[in-house]
Amino acid sequence: MKIVSFNINGIKARLPRLIEYLTEQQPDVVCLQELKTSDETFPIDDIRAAGYGALWHGQKSWNGVAILAKGSDPIERQRGLEGEIEDEHSRYLEAEIDGLIVASIYLPNGNPQPGPKFDYKLRWIERLSARARTLLTEERPVVLAGDYNVIPNDDDTFSVRAMASDALMQPESREGYRRLVAQGWTDALRTRFPKGGVWTFWDYQAGAWQRDAGFRIDHLLLSPIAADRLVDAGVDKEYRGREKASDHAPTWVRLR
């Protein structure tokens, strides 16, 4: 079972790339982030034509998450996180597919820092951690897949110096991510590549793709039962180099 996390960076603008990916790779589950479209304009007909059912939690022009399943409709479990009633950002969607619980996560960027956006990011990590802790108590296979906007380690970026002041790499961001993982989750990509040096994002600016100046911010965290089924994990890097591609590459885990 191949489960993919893919920040699509605008599903309407990248729809040909998404359909291309679904057709060529035939993943079983795809968690999308940064849809940048409302619920009403989500391209469900095109996705169904490619052989996938879907759930989505859209937001016009910003944010938005979705979960696609090959040949079936995901069963919704939860949308949004508890903890801030006034939070209207579409950043969390949770579903069940063939006995597997999957969440699509788009954690706040947090820039500029310090400031309100960074404070919101840290609160959001804590809210996610509370939900993750509850999911672990179910003792079921769970995958928390998404764009976490956190660079966990120095070897997860092309340049520590270049990213030193960014919200993605602040000590508070990293500590929040580490506390989450320490609940008992397995970072699939880190397990597969323990020495780092694997990127999932390359900025559009300054020739980052051409220079391979990227970093790892897309993560798939596995509950203990899911981790026991881990076969492989990786990044479909070539899709970042295609015409009008997202600035993220599809990041995946394969489970038995």
TrEMBL record:
Keywords tagged on the record: Hydrolase, Magnesium, Metal-binding
Primary enzyme class: hydrolase
Enzyme Commission designation: 3.1.11.2
Pfam families: Exo_endo_phos
Gene Ontology molecular function: double-stranded DNA 3'-5' DNA exonuclease activity
Residues covered by the Endonuclease/exonuclease/phosphatase domain: 4-248
Cofactor requirements of the protein: Mg(2+)
Record's keyword annotation contains Hydrolase: yes
SUPFAM superfamilies for this protein: DNase I-like
Family from the record: Belongs to the DNA repair enzymes AP/ExoA family.
Name under which the protein is recorded: Exodeoxyribonuclease III
Native source species: Sphingomonas hylomeconis
Gene designation per UniProt: xth
